[in-house]
Amino acid sequence: MRTRPIADISPRDLRPLLDEEARHWGRELFWDFADVKNAVLGSLERRGLAGRVAQDGARVVAYGYYMADSTRAVVGSLFATESHRGRGLEEALLDGILDETQGLAGSDRVECQTLFSTAPAADTRFAHLGFTGRRRHYLVRDLLGLLPRAPHVFKLRPFRRDDIGPAAQLIHRSHAGSLDAALNLTYATPATCRGFVETLVLRSGCGRFDAEASLVADGGEGCLGVILASQLSKLNGHICQVSVAPQAQGRGLGTQLVLAGLEAMARRGLRSASLSVTVENHRAYDLYLGLGFELRREFAAHAWARPPARIEVPA
Q: In this predicted structure, what is the pLDDT of residue 220?
């Protein structure tokens, strides 16, 4: 068994493991991983993918990768073939990747969410390296039964492309000072929030954008609430983002947005809907449990900032 940089192997070498990974997350998370798989293969083909692999002879049996830009490095999948799990391979790859990303010149932040990890001990590897982490849950709700009736406190309309800017501003305001904003640089500024919304809406960054289940609540003060949704597989929808303006919180708008989104998914024949939430975000977490979502997978979000900077989490 040996480990080596992922850039040293060919897409053909990695494809069998990626095919297995796509089947695995399809079963585990109801997530069609084909687009992610193709993006990884394309980046490897262009020699633009960083990370490490483990090989048993000539066969690639585990891999992990990360993406880096001028602001941060983000660690992606950490996956091993079924016959080689439980041997510490993924953890060893993660240790190497974290060492590499923390040493990157010009990048002063590293983030990782371990949703796509087959490493049982992955979440134990971060704290001693100075990372701050919090538990997250991947929740799923069956759409085949009767949905609660959505309250009609606010008037909702379909999300339009010209809503991208106002939605980004709303998402930024609603996350100001939050735990999620501390752990994910996506929420740091209106510009990063806009990039996030554009990725979801224009570039299918989290499955195919669902225009029917993505909705906006308008008010006299502009955009008061938004839900952005996608379709992760043939039968599973996904709630990517729900945000409510601070002045409209506590009035049932979050519940209305989520239920209206679920109703739109159910009308199209989807059988389930999923979402991810930070467990300590008690208001959102309790809302989703109250609307019938159930735990499918526990994972964590981790973030590190190069000293003397630090990750500032709210008390």
A: 76
Residues 7, 102 within the same domain: yes
Core vs surface per residue 282-307: b (16+ CB within 10 A) or e? eebbebbeebbbeebbebbbbbbbee
Residue 150 lies in a domain: yes
In this prediction the pTM is: 0.95
Give yes or no: residues 108 and 206 share one domain.
no
Give me the pLDDT at residue 106, please: 82
Give the end of a domain, one of 129, 155, 189.
Answer: 129
Backbone angles phi, psi at 273, to 5 degrees: -140, 145
Q: Is the peptide bond before 120 cis (omega within 30 degrees of 0)?
A: no
- Cβ(136)–Cβ(113) below 8 Å: yes
* Residue spans of the chain under pLDDT 50: none
Task: For 48-65, give one letter per residue: b (16+ CB within 10 A) or e.
Answer: ebbbbbbbeeeebbbbbb
